[in-house]
Amino acid sequence: MEGEDEGSNVEFHEDEEIIEVIELNDGDPSPEDVANELEDIEVADGDHGASDEEWETEDEGIDETTEPMQDDSEVTFSKHSGLVFCVSLDPKNNTLAVTGGEDDKAFVWRVSDGELQFEITGHTDSVVCASFNHESSLVATGDMNGIIKVWRVESKEEIWSFEVGDLEWLDWHPCAQVLMVGTTQGSSWMWKIPSGECKTFQGPSCPSTCGKFLPDGKRAVIGYEDGTVRFWDLKQGNAVHVLKGHDGHLGSLTCVAVNKDGSLVLTGSVDSSTKLLNTNTGKVVGVFLIEGKPPRKPETDEEDEEKEFVSVESVAFCNVLPLIAIGHLNGMLAIYDISTQTLRHHCQHETGIVKVLWEENSPLVYSCSMDGTVRLWDARSGKLVNKYGGHTAEILDFAINREASVMVTAAGDGKAKVFCLQRPDR
């Protein structure tokens, strides 16, 4: 391989022959002030304008075939020696990626050519969380033993470390050097980095399974294994809204998403339901079900053993149209119009969906699945626009940059891959 030293774990791929082309008719807050006083955070409103595009109802797209999988990627990063569980792109420049894997390692590497920048050392179990902060100056990683590490990207040195209980999720504050994580013990922790000043948010006596900061930086939404959802005031340390019983879920929460202005939250659960919540009132304003079937508890009766049980694996908001995407374990990607709460399109994968992501400024949505591919859909028509392959095992995580020109995937084959998303027909 030209320009590559012996022993390198980076592979480059030549352009593949195109098989088929389908034509498709803020006053910024001060991070220092936020770190000292969360209540002083102000975030500019996002641009909520959406062009009035004509809805299409055709549900046809690329004809799936059983051809051998081709590798559509531009770069392959191969330094992991086991499954690669997580990947994140640096949000400021989109030039670096961080990956964490089964080999107890995390790597920061360059997206353009896969060159290793540095290895994050000191983990003692699989690294399942990895993310850059809002300004791409810090990178945080967490392993299944609860060891959390923060490294400074420019100096390539560790600046902070802490150990909690078994880790479930990790999220950076939207505009400050503040990190939050959830654990299997039910508590969530929040720190200022690198000082380590800490707050804890005690949930029910069950795992905190998913969570995110809201865009205002003053609140967070956290989901739990018992089906409850809590909205936390980060300065006061108390839950301002608690959804449980009929308003909560019948089973563990699996995923949570927040819309651009922070007014709405989506929660997904193993009970097969997705709920739309108003963050200001804490009320349920929408419920989305599989074919209208009521949600079900994970524990089924013997007579129900043969019935299909479908978990919601990933949820996401579109920024330019009033649409949401819901990915299910049975391979169904459901596109809903939230203004009317009606199903627009049902897009089917052959295997379970792991994650869904919208492009930042378009009604195009990506979904990755257990078959090792990422599919790109036009949510207005439900058509399959493109499919990206190259992995030989399930894709476990992926990320796309702001311009929707680059995608990075992490998979069970021990590889991370970089795909170029720019196409002449785009």
How would you describe this structure in keywords?
about 45% strand; about 425 residues; 1 helix; mainly beta; globular; 33 strands
For the largest beta sheet, what order do the strands appear in spatially? Answer: 1-2-33-32-31
Strand content: 35-45%
Structural class: mainly beta
Cα-atom radius of gyration = 21 Å
Give an overview of the whole structure.
It contains one helix and 33 strands. The protein has one helix at 31-36; strands at residues 10-12, 75-77, 84-89, 96-101, 106-110, 116-120, 127-132, 138-143, 147-152, 157-163, 167-172, 178-183, 187-192, 198-202, 208-213, 219-224, 229-233, 238-243, 253-258, 264-269, 274-278, 284-288, 312-317, 323-328, 332-337, 342-348, 353-358, 364-369, 374-378, 383-388, 395-400, 406-411, 416-420. It is 1% helix and 44% strand. Strands 1-2-33-32-31 form a five-stranded antiparallel β-sheet, with no helix packed on it. Strand 28 and strand 29 form a beta hairpin.
Concise synopsis of the structure shown:
The protein is an all-beta fold and 426 residues long. It has one helix at residues 31-36; strands spanning 10-12, 75-77, 84-89, 96-101, 106-110, 116-120, 127-132, 138-143, 147-152, 157-163, 167-172, 178-183, 187-192, 198-202, 208-213, 219-224, 229-233, 238-243, 253-258, 264-269, 274-278, 284-288, 312-317, 323-328, 332-337, 342-348, 353-358, 364-369, 374-378, 383-388, 395-400, 406-411, 416-420.
